Amino acid sequence: xxxxxxxxxxxxxxxxxxxxxxxxxxxxxxxxxxxxxxxxxxxxxxxxxxxxxxxxxxxxxxxxxxxxxxxxxxxxxxxxxxxxxxxxxxxxxxxxxxxxxxxxxxxxxxxxxxxxxxxxxxxxxxxxxxxxxxxxxxxxxxxxxxxxxxxxxxxxxxxxxxxxxxxxxxxxxxxxxxxxxxxxxxxxxxxxxxxxxxxxxxxxxxxxxxxxxxxxxxxxxxxxxxxxxxxxxxxxxxxxxxxxxxxxxxxxxxxxxxxxxxxxxxxxxxxxxxxxxxxxxxxxxxxxxxxxxxxxxxxxxxxxxxxxxxxxxxxxxxxxxxxxxxxxxxxxxxxxxxxxxxxxxxxxxxxxxxxxxxxxxxxxxxxxxxxxxxxxxxxxxxxxxxxxxxxxxxxxxxxxxxxxxxxxxxxxxxxxxxxxxxxxxxxxxxxxxxxxxxxxxxxxxxxxxxxxxxxxxxxxxxxxxxxxxxxxxxxxxxxxxxxxxxxxxxxxxxxxxxxxxxxxxxxxxxxxxxxxxxxxxxxxxxxxxxxxxxxxxxxxxxxxxxxxxxxxxxxxxxxxxxxxxxxxxxxxxxxxxxxxxxxxxxxxxxxxxxxxxxxxxxxxxxxxxxxxxxxxxxxxxxxxxxxxxxxxxxxxxxxxxxxxxxxxxxxxxxxxxxxxxxxxxxxxxxxxxxxxxxxxxxxxxxxxxxxxxxxxxxxxxxxxxxxxxxxxxxxxxxxxxxxxxxxxxxxxxxxxxxxxxxxxxxxxxxxxxxxxxxxxxxxxxxxxxxxxxxxxxxxxxxxxxxxxxxxxxxxxxxxxxxxxxxxxxxxxxxxxxxxxxxxxxxxxxxxxxxxxxxxxxxxxxxxxxxxxxxxxxxxxxxxxxxxxxxxxxxxxxxxxxxxxxxxxxxxxxxxxxxxxxxxxxxxxxxxxxxxxxxxxxxxxxxxxxxxxxxxxxxxxxxxxxxxxxxxxxxxxxxxxxxxxxxxxxxxxxxxxxxxxxxxxx
Length: 985
Prior knowledge:
CATH class of the largest domain: Mainly Beta
Pfam families: HATPase_c (PF02518), HisKA_3 (PF07730)
Enzyme class: transferase
Mean pLDDT: 85
EC number: 2.7.13.3
Distance between the termini: 122 Å
GO molecular function: ATP binding; phosphorelay sensor kinase activity; protein dimerization activity
Low-confidence stretches: 1-14
CATH architecture of the largest domain: 7 Propeller
Keywords: ATP-binding, Kinase, Nucleotide-binding, Phosphoprotein, Transferase, Two-component regulatory system
Helix content: 10-25%
């Protein structure tokens, strides 16, 4: 026999990789996982059938319409056919889920009677479905839509495993460990002596069978011989290996076993890596391993609760163990001149042999003054001359003899007796070594082995950072130094003393969101990346100040950035208190790595970071030291996830109810979603097919066509809630980025229509506008009817007065004329009668004109004014002239305005004709300017006392002006007497 002893297995033992427990699936007793084309996981468990998107388990009852009272009490096995229909083997028989319809499939010999289906296999070559469910037979369905056929097998116990054979046949293994080869029409049991549960390997000749710890090969006489062993002990039952391509994988005895065939080799290649799932005191369990489409391994056991996951492939993070320390917290890291890696940790100083990047760290004893030292270096720098300079907590700066481990302290001036702690060291571009402390900046003279406080040339006054902690120094081109302090960021040119401060108290370009800074990494252009405690990662440029800020809103796991290193000019690595971050400067993408990616603990320490000349990065934290290989983290090698829309939820406010609609994960949708007026909000449940750390995934959305079309983050959750959207049609666009900063390969567009409440609908606005228009039109028509009625009344009264009273007054005047021709004694009386009758006729004509609706125009008023000037001013010997500006003859005038205006004009002209002494001219102006109508009556005579007194005529004019809302002025001026009326028009 070709035994491969455990000592010969060393080349096949892989480095241990980190497994993480899935907190959701671990609540179930999982029997099988499958992944559909959209990327959603389907889970068969003792508790039933579920769909899983990394956040939520959705039971079958929420996905499909089930018969009344029906439920899956136990789902055992699953299979997906080419049409993405899910076949379910359960304790109640065989079922098929097609979209949202669940149907029971009759099994040959039992129909739809309750029976346990233990195994399912969809044959990759023939497309037939094989079912293991009975003691003496299996069933085959030549096509998923055709009835099944019973294939007899003398197994004695039900088939618990089905595997693909070389043709359209299958291998069958029973619960009693019997193996059979089964064609579509009949099967034959192989005469193997039962050896626990073995699984035949398709395509091997002679036939090979695998157990949990060994490989067997069929001999010509039909017996089995063990040809390979990878773990000690006996093969065990309940063995369900997972198949990945041409290989097999499973977990047993705390080891992930990967079995892969090798072209031209008689035996497959075996690879082992640690996968310690069992708790202390428990019996070992066999775990099935399933690899999903994104390269994530899932491991679960049908006999133990707990589901674990691990990212397959080369790891970018390697945790470096230490002996004899099981756990250590690191601070300073550097490479010594002899090639050894030096790590300062709390409680010990450790070294790793040169050229052995994966070797364990060993203690490196330190001595000082001939005695063992418990120094804890916070920062270490190696000069080109091979001197090792360090800053050590609670002590001054010092030098380390890396050969012997002896420490020597640098001398301080006598006035520095209050020195408390050295915090950092840095060599600038001129070769000068500097040290930052809790009391300011020191120049380190390594030749004289002394440290002196820095003072600006020619200015011995204390510097503003002398009383602050200088936590890190960063050298910039041109001899500049960046000082990261507890009071902000300083940029210092030691040779000239030039100093710039950037902080929370500075205005304008030098303002920073915080003064509590922790670390820095200088860029080639003179700028600097700064890590802070409460404000994330900051990018500061000289003279321009803060240019960029990255916080938890942008994907950081914590706003405390403890360390910063640059792998390339466009790729930063930051250690935070909640994980390691890779930041793509050019694309603005954040990738987060934590325990799921190999960190022993996600909390990383301040100053515990170092970049090796070969490009490897070292980060230390409370879980020890980690070696990071950026080359393995190239984005092109990262699995690209898909964005899924698992469900949407609507809240109906009337009635108050919430309903969730589950989707198949893939879009587009056939019809747009509708948000009715009574719906308070709609929520979309998003997910990525990268299930390793779903809590780190980030999602964004935007609403094209809205007032703000920018991409907006969903927040720290995977649920997008939309509420208060204006009515209209939208396309909700969605995108996602995994925790490693890899964007989803697809974007989703969800059509959404928001209906308006009834009074905001267009038809409601049109109806309201029509009603308002009809009402206004009715009111207008009613007003016009009343106006026409009044006009007809006025015209009739005017006509009646003219025809009746006017005729009567005319006859009186004619009779007075005839009487005047009689004897002289009646002359005075007749003269008075004739004068009064003429005045009454004129007054009557004025009244008739005032109420006549046909005279409501500017032209009619002007004609009347001209007639009055001819009848009153001309006989008095006054030359008259009427001026008109800004008015048209056809322009309408309100009756009240026309009548009062004419009567004021008439009174002013009459007063001028009677009382203006020596007047020879009378000018009348009627003008409209800037919304005012002005009447100006002016003569060039001297008024008599009667004209200047406030008599009845002036009072009447003032009252009429008040009724029109205007003003009237009547006064004597050097050029004559003026009456001016101004009314709004």
